[in-house]
Amino acid sequence: MSIFRYAAPSAFYPLAGRMIPWFAAIAAASILIGLYWGFFQTPAQLGGTNPQKEYYRIIFVHVPAAWMSMWLYLVLAVWSAVGLVFNTRLSFMMARAAAPTGAIFTFLALWTGAFWGRPSWGTYWDWDPRLTSELILFFLYIGYIALHSAIDDARRADRASALLAIVGLVMLPVIFWSINCPDPNQCAALHQRSDLSQMEPNIFWAMMIMTFGFWMYSFAAVFLRVRGIILSREADSAWVRGLVEGKA
Amino acid sequence: MSVLEFLNQGGYAYFVWASYGAALILLAGEIVLLRRNHRTILTRLGRLLRMRTRGGDQ
C-alpha cells in the first residue's frame, strides 16, 4: 500500500473526513493563542520613530491572510498542473476546492488592508503596486471559479480552468516583488520593504502563530469542500451509493 | 487593562474590529456553509437513490 492509494477519491474521502476535526481543532487553538498573544503580550505600538498606534494590530489578521492568499493560489496552480500532467481526478478536485478559500483570504487581505491603510496612510485604497496586484489575484480566483462553473462538462471545466490557474501564477512573483524589488527607489510603494528580522519578537511570533492557524484552517475548509465535490462528482459510483445507503 | 480599554484599542476600535469582525464572519461563515452544503448533498443523493431503487433503476 502506498500513499498514491489516496489519489483515488473513494480512498481520500474518508481520510479527509478523519483529518478535518484535527485540522479544525489545531486551527482554533492556534488562532486563539495567536490572538491572545497579539492583543495582550505585544507593545501598544509598532516601530520606532513615528510609530503606528494600536491599529497596527490588524497585522495579526492582515499578513497571515495575505500570505495564505498567495500560498493557496500556489496550491491551486500546482494541483491544476498535476491534474493536467497525470490526468488525476482528485488533483482537479483539490484545485477547485482550494479556490474559494483562497478568494476569501485574498478578500480579507484587501479588506483588512483598507482598514489599516486609513489610519496609517490616510486612505482606504490606493493604486499602489501591491494593492493592485493583490486585487488582480482576487479577480484571478473569481475568474477561475467562474470559468469552472461556466463549463457544464466537469472534465473540460477542470482542464480549461487549470490552464487559467497556471497562467495566473505569474501574479505571485509580481505581488512579492511589488515590495521586495531589488532597488527600493524603483518601487513607489506605500508598503515598505518587509524585513521580518527587524520586528519586535512578540509581534513576530503572534503573527506566525496566526499564520499557522490560518494554514490549518485552510486544510479543514478545503478538505470539507473537496468532500462535497467528491460526493457530487462520483454520485453514480458504487462506493458513494454504498455510503449514502449506510447513512440514509 | 479594563474591558472597555481593550475594546477601545486606543481609539482605533473601528479599524481594528472592522478587520477582525470581517475575518470572523468570513472564516466561521465558510465553515458553517460548507457543513450545511455537505449535509444537503448527502440528503439529495439519498433521495436520488431511493427514487431510483423504487423506479427499478432503468
Mean pLDDT value of chain B = 90
Biggest sheet layout of chain B: none
Strand content of chain A: under 5%
Shape verdict of chain A:
globular
Low-confidence spans of chain B: pLDDT under 50, at least 5 residues?
none
Q: Total number of β-strand segments of chain B? A: 0
Q: How big is the Rg of chain A?
A: 20 Å
Please trace the helix and strand order of chain A, writing H or E for each element: HHHHHHHH
Whole-number total of structural domains of chain A:
1
SS field, number of helical segments of chain B: 2
Overall average pLDDT of chain A: 91
| Secondary-structure-derived class of chain A | mainly alpha
SSE map:
The complex is a heterodimer of chains A (248) and B (58).
Chain A: H1 9-40, H2 59-86, H3 89-121, H4 129-150, H5 154-168, H6 171-177, H7 201-233, H8 238-247
Chain B: H1 3-8, H2 13-55
Walk me through what this model shows:
The complex is a heterodimer of chains A (248) and B (58). Chain A contains 8 helices and no strands. By secondary structure, chain A is an all-alpha fold. Chain A has one domain (33-242). In chain A, α3 (89-121) packs antiparallel against α4 and α3 runs antiparallel to α7. The longest helix of chain A has 33 residues, at 89-121. Chain A is globular, with a radius of gyration of 20 Å. The longest helix of chain B is centred in the middle third of the chain and has 43 residues, at 13-55. Chain B is mainly α and 58 residues long. Chain B contains 2 helices and no strands. The model of chain B has no long low-confidence stretch (mean pLDDT 90). Chains A and B meet through α1, α2, α3, α7 and α8 of A and α2 of B.
